[in-house]
Amino acid sequence: MSHIPVLYHEVLEALQVRPHGRYIDGTLGAGGHTRGILEQGGRVLAFDWDPEAIEFARQQLAEWGDQVQFVNASYAEMGRFAPEYGFGEADGILMDLGLSSRQLDNPTRGFAFRYEAPLDMRFDPRTGQTAADLLNTWPATALADIFWRYGEEKQSRKLAQALVENRPWATTKQLADFIATVLRTPRGRSHIHPATRIFQALRIAVNGELEALEKGLAAAVKLLAPSGRLAVISFHSLEDRLVKNHIRDLSQEPEWSPAQLISNWQPTLKRISRKPIGPGTAELTTNPRSRSAKLRIAEKVVSD
Prior knowledge:
Elements: H1 8-15, E1 22-25, H2 32-39, E2 43-47, H3 51-60, E3 68-71, H4 78-81, E4 90-96, H5 101-105, H6 131-137, H7 140-151, H8 156-165, H9 172-182, H10 195-207, H11 209-223, E5 224-234, H12 237-249, E6 269-271, H13 281-286, E7 294-300
Helix pairs in contact: 7-8, 7-10, 9-10, 11-12
């Protein structure tokens, strides 16, 4: 296998893949997780809202024929498409919320500031506003809000005002270099470039990622067959918190959750991993990008 995805073995173990089982890969990417499921005899319905990812994985997985089917759409649309493809009840669903290496390493997509590229950042480059559109048209208050909410940037207002006063913005390095001058970090304080959080915030806003995640989680729980497994890989605290709380509120848990205040409430999920699963030493050595990955697992509760 040329591409080993994040937490590969942990995901396959979590999904408990069985021959002829039906599995949904909510974020196909380069197809590594899907390939693992196919090799164990499962059938896969693979989603990705990036058309380039769909085309690349279609070629990589051609040998599997109709054992895998592809949908160029966000995992937020699983509930609408899955029944049409015969996946109205899935034995397992994976949602890998990270950017693929192909997206990060493509200098034309604008996800990474180590390349000079247009400020795009759309997962589907055919639709929606680009990051440049947001930066060049939104008021400072709106920009500050997304920098704070999605990037947890403490100097969000200062940066937003500076960006508005120095419009227009067109390229990644132009933006990253300017951010570095506004958000100066004392030497030795941090090894993370000050633009990292801002690029994350812009990407989340451009693609509506947290809203899509909420819809995707709700759809996944409905689509799972009894005893089916849900596995979600997140890469930053905003995503992980949302996933953690969603699983908790639908699970058989000893601690309080709002849903349990309802007298006739019944759990929908059983939490499998109390703490998130992270990469081991070997994976961290071969793939440093996996360092922030967190896998959470839940199982659909069988109705009485």
